[in-house]
Write a sequence for this structure.
């Protein structure tokens, strides 16, 4: 497959996901590369806004965390919270003007699929912040929820457990324990106390139109 054909496939899938997400009352922007993301982000937030974020490699790769740390914004920086008061950070994020995160997967049917251990991220996506801004590379786009579930178990979760130094089956083997079970499902997995796949959120049609905003980037980002 030529590079030109590959780019056409990427753009086709992104446009398909965009239309489906918009049908589900989410606002969608497309960036050709991560350098364009900051310009889009600046149109979605205002100076003085109180802003929170979930843990995300994609946000760091796009320079969003560095932007939010400037004096223009009241950024609730997770790095300023200790393990003893991290719950305070989680709760404060519910009353922010904007909350930034990525997605574990985005389906061509217009669904966001996210899986969490502490679940502060999926809780904020579902309820609380005035605006939720999701930044995701094209590598997060999958055909349907079955592929989304598989993507987390085979790609996202193993990579994140390595990043977070979690003592889990997927950290050691590179894939979820569910693949070795007789009837694996969405919630199947290991029994480690470090497990990061504890709660599961599918965001489909939204009651509050455009509360969730999705920036799709034509580059691979995150895990």
């Amino acid at each position: 497959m030529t590079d030109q054909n590959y780019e056409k496939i990427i753009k086709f899938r992104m446009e398909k996901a965009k239309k489906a997400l918009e049908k589900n009352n989410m606002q969608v922007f497309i960036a050709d590369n991560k350098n364009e993301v900051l310009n889009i982000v600046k149109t979605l937030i205002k100076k003085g806004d109180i802003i929170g974020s979930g843990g995300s490699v994609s946000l760091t790769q796009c320079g969003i965390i560095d932007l939010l740390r400037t004096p223009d914004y009241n950024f609730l920086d997770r790095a300023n919270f200790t393990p003893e008061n991290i719950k305070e950070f989680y709760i404060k994020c519910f009353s922010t003007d904007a909350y930034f995160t990525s997605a574990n997967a985005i389906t061509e049917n217009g669904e966001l699929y996210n899986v969490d251990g502490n679940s502060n991220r999926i809780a904020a996506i579902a309820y609380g912040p005035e605006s939720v801004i999701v930044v995701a590379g094209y590598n997060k786009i999958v055909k349907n929820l079955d592929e989304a579930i598989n993507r987390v178990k085979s790609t996202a979760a193993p990579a994140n457990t390595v990043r977070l130094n979690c003592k889990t089956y997927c950290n050691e083997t590179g894939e979820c324990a569910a693949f070795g079970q007789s009837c694996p499902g969405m919630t199947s997995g290991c029994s480690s106390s470090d497990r990061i796949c504890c709660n599961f959120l599918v965001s489909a049609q939204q009651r509050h139109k455009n509360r969730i905003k999705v920036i799709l980037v034509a580059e691979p980002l995150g895990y």
Q: What stands out?
A: Residues 3-23 form the longest helix (21 residues).
